[in-house]
């Protein structure tokens, strides 16, 4: 099971790396391994996530601390992943920093959310109505991670979702790795489209 989950997460990591979504060691990923007790594999902190090594991930528990002896440090943002696994049935969490998601988070930061509509790709979130609306909440980039995690948790109410952290990045989750990656790609499509549209409109 654990090896299978490792391979799944490694495959997602490889694909996101191919998109160049791990600039300057940014980003962190996780995948649930077991429910009772909760354990999940999370990326080790501070590494270049474009590289593939046997030390890319470590197993952590419900408190975000290593579940077994290791010299590896879990992602500095593991507590955000903890909130998702503790509050929902999500199976995978993906966090990336891109220029487009940062620009959108800054442009709409004061509004506290960005709202997308009239976009075919919104169907990726399971919203099939013609006038469907997809909202991504935006939270401030608080440096103290337990505080950030508490603010983040206010927007974690479903088994799938997305939250922008202002001038930082986006965290997306879904029931499994396939769904989380699909949601992340759709969010990035929307952010990228919207940045270009804003530029054209100026
Ligand atoms: C230069 S990236 C700053 C930290 C961050 O936001 C991030 O996503 C990566 O941190 P981690 O501890 O998961 O490597
Ligand atoms: Zn980050």
Low-pLDDT windows of residues: none
- The CATH topology is given as L-fuculose-1-phosphate Aldolase
The helix fraction, in percent, is 25-40%
Bound molecules: ligand L4RZE5RM, zinc ion
Q: Return the CATH architecture.
A: 3-Layer(aba) Sandwich
As laid out across the biggest beta sheet, the strand order is: 3-2-1-4-8-7-6-5
Query: How big is the Rg?
Result: 16 Å
Q: How confident overall, as mean pLDDT?
A: 98
- If helices are DSSP runs of H or I spanning 4 or more residues, what is the number of helices? 5
The description of the largest β-sheet is:
8 strands, mixed
Structural class: alpha+beta
Q: Can you say what the CATH homologous superfamily is? A: Class II aldolase/adducin N-terminal domain
Per CATH, the class reads: Alpha Beta
Count the domains.
1
Could you give the topology of this structure?
Elements: H1 2-18, E1 28-34, E2 39-43, E3 57-61, H2 78-87, E4 92-96, H3 99-107, E5 113-117, E6 133-139, H4 145-153, E7 161-165, E8 169-174, H5 177-201
Parallel strand pairs: 6-7
Antiparallel strand pairs: 1-2, 1-4, 2-3, 4-8, 5-6, 7-8
Zinc ion binds next to loops.
Please provide a written account of the structure.
This protein is α+β, with helices and mostly antiparallel strands and 202 residues long. The chain has a single domain, classed as 3-Layer(aba) Sandwich (L-fuculose-1-phosphate Aldolase), CATH 3.40.225. Helix content is 35%, strand content 22%. The chain has five helices and eight strands. The chain has helices at residues 2-18, 78-87, 99-107, 145-153, 177-201, and strands at 28-34, 39-43, 57-61, 92-96, 113-117, 133-139, 161-165, 169-174. It has an eight-stranded mixed sheet with strand order 3-2-1-4-8-7-6-5, sandwiched between helices. Helix 3 packs across helix 5 (177-201). The structure holds ligand L4RZE5RM and zinc ion. Zinc ion binds next to loops. Zinc ion (ZN) binds at residues 26, 77, 95, 97, 168-169. One of its GO terms (cellular component) is cytoplasm. One of its GO terms (molecular function) is methylthioribulose 1-phosphate dehydratase activity. Zn(2+) binds at residues 95, 97. This is Methylthioribulose-1-phosphate dehydratase. One of its GO terms (biological process) is L-methionine salvage from methylthioadenosine.
């Amino acid at each position: 099971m654990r090896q299978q989950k490792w391979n799944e997460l490694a495959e997602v990591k490889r694909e996101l790396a191919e998109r160049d979504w791990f600039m300057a060691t940014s980003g962190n990923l996780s995948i649930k391994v077991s429910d009772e007790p909760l354990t999940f594999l999370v990326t080790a902190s501070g590494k270049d996530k474009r590289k593939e090594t046997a030390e890319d991930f470590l197993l952590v528990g419900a408190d975000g601390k290593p579940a077994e002896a290791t010299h590896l440090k879990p992602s500095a943002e593991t507590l955000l992943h903890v909130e998702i696994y503790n509050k929902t049935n999500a199976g995978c969490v993906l966090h990336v920093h891109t220029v487009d998601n940062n620009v959108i988070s800054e442009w709409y930061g004061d509004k506290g959310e960005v709202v997308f509509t009239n976009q075919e790709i919104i169907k990726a979130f399971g919203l099939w109505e013609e006038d469907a609306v997809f909202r991504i909440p935006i939270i401030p980039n608080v440096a103290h991670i337990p505080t950030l995690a508490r603010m983040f948790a206010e927007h974690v109410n479903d088994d799938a979702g997305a939250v922008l952290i202002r001038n930082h990045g986006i965290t997306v989750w879904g029931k499994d790795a396939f769904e989380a990656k699909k949601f992340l790609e759709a969010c990035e499509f929307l952010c990228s489209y919207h940045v270009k549209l804003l530029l054209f409109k100026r």
